Amino acid sequence: MEAKELVEPVAEAVRAVAAREILPRWRQLAEHEVTQKAGPHDLVTVADREAERCLTAELTALLPGSVVVGEEAVHEDPSRYAALAGDAPVWIVDPVDGTRQFVRGEAGFATLVALAHHGELLGSWTYAPARGDFAHAWRGAGAWLAGERLTTGTPDPTRPLRVAHSHPDYTTPAQKRALAALRVDGVAPRPCGAAGLEYLAVARGELDAIAFDWENAWDHAAGLLLVEEAGGAQGTWAGQPFQLTGGNATPFTAARDRATADRLLALFRAAHEAHDAPTGPPPA
Predict the structure, then answer these.
(1) If you read the UniProt record, what top EC class would you report for this enzyme, in one word (predicted)?
(2) Which sequence spans correspond to the domains of the chain?
(3) Which residues of 55-94 are buried (b: 16+ CB within 10 A; e: fewer)?
(4) Using CA atoms, how far apart are residues 182 and 190, in angstroms rounded to an integer?
(5) Rounded to whole angstroms, what are the CA distances from 49 to 18, 21, 91, 191, 280?
(6) 107 or 35: which carries more pLDDT confidence?
(7) For the chain, first and last CA: distance in Å?
(8) Domain at 3-149: CATH code
(9) Contact at 8 Å (CB) between 22 and 111?
(10) CA 117, CA 90: separation in Å to the nearest integer?
(11) Most C-beta atoms within 10 A of its C-beta, which of 77, 147, 148, 238?
């Protein structure tokens, strides 16, 4: 697969589906077009479902023999996630990343598409239609936004690291304890918005890092490749790269450079080791 064969056709498909299925419903949703999945913060709309349905058809037509792992389809049938470990090329799709923002009528949502094969990310497309931002990346060919190459750069050493982390509304007590490792001098953490747009902010050098503790591939695949191709780094606290198929030691991070990633991972590692350390007096 060559970048020149897929980058533009996929971009055109994403733009077209967003124009047809997402933007006309932005700020126009009826009450019955929004439902809950796992809880009050886990929403799905008719735009999510229809956009994923259309993207599934268009992306598999662009690459015969490929399959789709999409957020809404996996919600209906969790066994579909296993395709990430299969032999076929996989399109990883989040039709509306930031559904809560979309439902509120805010502009901070995006459509995320990534292409992977045998667990390796090959292509990435991030489109924020309400903002007009479209970024893409291809392994070995860089990351791009509006025709300009993205470069993460390095954080300003005179200011605290700006880090977006998993929103408290979506975290368990154990995950909150793990993310509390960010509350130290030299780090300025804040809850994240739509994951795909936070990754884009890192790739643009506007945010120093992200730290997440959930693994859903559709939230991370596009952003991870975008950050890496812009010069950034990623990894889990256990010292391994993030794996699309799951089983990662979380929290994990994607950052503007390797030093920043390592700094945050060291905080998570120390917190994990402290939590697992035995308490009380040593045995006699």
Answers:
(1) hydrolase
(2) 3-149, 161-275
(3) bbebbbeebeebbbbbbbbbeeeeeebebbeeeebbbbbb
(4) 10
(5) 12, 9, 16, 26, 53
(6) 107
(7) 63
(8) 3.30.540.10
(9) yes
(10) 6
(11) 238
Strand order in the sheet with 233-236: 187-191, 161-165, 209-212, 252-255, 233-236
* Interval 67-78 mean pLDDT: 96
Structure tokens at 172: 């368990």
SS3 state of residue 103: helix
CA distance 221 to 243: 9
Q: Measured between alpha carbons, how far is 12 from 184 in angstroms, rounded to an integer? A: 44
Distance CA 47, CA 33 (A): 8
Torsion of CA 251, 252, 257, 262, to 10 degrees: 60
Find out whether 18 and 51 touch, Cβ atoms under 8 Å.
yes
Using CA atoms, how far apart are residues 200 and 206, in angstroms rounded to an integer?
A: 9
Of the candidates 114, 145, 119, the residue with the CA atom closest to the CA atom of residue 132: 145
Query: Counting Cβ atoms within 10 Å, is residue 170 exposed (0-12), middle (13-18) or buried (19+)?
Result: middle
Under 8 Å between Cβ of 77 and 52: no
pLDDT at 136: 98
Give pLDDT tens digits for 183-222: 999 999 999 999 999 999 999 999 999 999 999 999 999 9
